[in-house]
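re: ur question from yesterday

yeah so i grabbed the chain u mentioned. its 172 aa long if i counted rite. heres the sequnce exactly as i have it in my notes:
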Amino acid sequence: MARKPSSSASTIRARLTAASAKLTQSGEPELAAAVDEVLAPGGWGVLRRAEAAVNPASAGERNLAVQLTETARDLIKERAADRGNTITNDVNEAFTKFLAGEFLPSRPQRSPRNSGVTKVNLNSRPDGALRAQVETAAKERAEELGWEPKPAHIAADWLMKKYRIPAAAKTG
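ran it thru and got these structure tokens back, copy pasting raw so excuse formatting
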């Protein structure tokens, strides 16, 4: 039975380096140079940005950092894992509900200045098309809501409500 190929970064880099060498040996220096460009520092980022310029939908899964207290973040992660959910799927659900008008986020309350409350990020990579729709819809509904929620606000409020995070965890 054939062994499943490894997809670790070092294995991929080694295979691409070998491919470049074979392409050079077989008289395909332009193809080898293209592989070398991807292998160069920042090469993958250049490729990803180029793809995003041609196909904006491909760039969609960029990071969404949701600022929460450490207690709230840890409770959300724990409760999501207990239910077999992923944070990304939960954020996509929040965006879908917001767009359907089934969820309106509460305006976030700021911690008092010099309160000592430390915030951390809960990161996810929600669907890019949904995120773009949410950004547009939030601007359109800002007057109705009395404020303009950002995707991170919508995600944070949804997660806090979905996982029943106590109010005390919101402020430290």
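noticed a couple things. The CA atoms of residues 98 and 154 lie 8 Å apart. also The chain has two domains: 11-59, 64-171.
anyway ttyl
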